[in-house]
Amino acid sequence: MILIKSSREIDLIRESCKIVAETLQLVKRNVRVGVTTQELDKIAEDYILSNNARPAFKGYSQAGSFDYPGSICSSIDDEVVHGIPGSRALKEGELLSIDVGVEKNGYYGDAALSVAVGNISPEKQKLMDVTERSLYLGIEQAVEKNRLGEISYAIQFYCESHGYSVVRDLCGHGVGKYLHEEPQIPNYGRKSNGPILKNGMTLAIEPMINMGSYKVFVADDGWTVLTLDGKPSAHFEHTIAIIEGKPEILTKCD
Ligand code: MF3
Ligand code: CO
């Protein structure tokens, strides 16, 4: 069942999303050669807690693996998503994806961005640019009366037209009362698929786009998702609400 939110609930989701966006910008400003992902995690966690909110990923459980230990996900190069922060220091030219989730007053926000560590190759920069653009093209389709598949199709068409592939094993999702709600939002598929979009839906749209094949696997740590061919992957995510027929980006940073 897709939960439709009242304007009061959307205001609460907006509050969590504001903290998500601010945390992402704070972490992004701290990305540099030599910083470890656990240092970035600490910066994020401190900021979220100082806003009387809770890092939503920490302690999150998923079938078959232990509770997620971080406040952020930090995924480098061939790590697609769900990279666990640790003692690994960032190196020049790496592509880092940072994912942040926040819960405050019982409502959730979720967003991610990819960022270059120092100077990055033009190939990786283009992968990031195309992935980010595909997110906005997907969001443009999040209008009342469209089918969900219009979002999926827009993302897939744009990314594949640049020679990239769309991860199949992971999707975007509804978000708000829970971190993960219905509907699932694949980043690939037909325009005619999925439910009809309605006002009051709150969605986390999150293209995960690979330079090589779409195939991925989960590492022995039970969380980190990696590309099978070892080529880089990029990830961007926003939480949006459909209001008066149109998408409002709740995790936007200004
Ligand atoms: N944005 C990701 C998602 O929606 C992050 C989840 S990390 C987890 O799945 F630990 F919470 F699973
Ligand atoms: Co998400």
Main sheet attributes: strand count, strand direction, barrel closure:
5 strands, antiparallel
Order of helices and strands: HHEEEEEHHEEEEEEEEEE
Helical content band: 25-40%
Q: How many structural units, i.e. domains?
A: 1
Tell me what you see in this structure:
By secondary structure, this protein is an alpha+beta fold. It has a single domain, classed as Creatine Amidinohydrolase (Alpha-Beta Complex). Helices cover 28% and strands 26% of the residues. The chain is built from four helices and 15 strands. It has helices spanning 7-29, 37-50, 122-140, 148-161; strands at residues 54-55, 72-76, 79-81, 95-104, 107-116, 165-166, 172-174, 181-185, 202-205, 208-210, 216-218, 225-227, 233-235, 238-243, 246-249. The strands form four sheets. It has a five-stranded antiparallel β-sheet. Strands 1, 2, 4 and 5 form a four-stranded antiparallel β-sheet that branches. Strands 3-12-11 form a three-stranded antiparallel β-sheet, with no helix packed on it. A hairpin with a 6-residue loop joins strand 11 and strand 12. It starts with 6 loop residues before the first helix and ends in a 5-residue tail after the last strand. The model has no long low-confidence stretch (mean pLDDT 97). Cobalt (II) ion is lined by residues 110, 173, 204, 206, 237.
Features:
254 residues, five-stranded antiparallel beta sheet, four-stranded antiparallel beta sheet, 26% strand, binds 2-amino-4-trifluoromethylsulfanyl-butyric acid, binds cobalt (II) ion
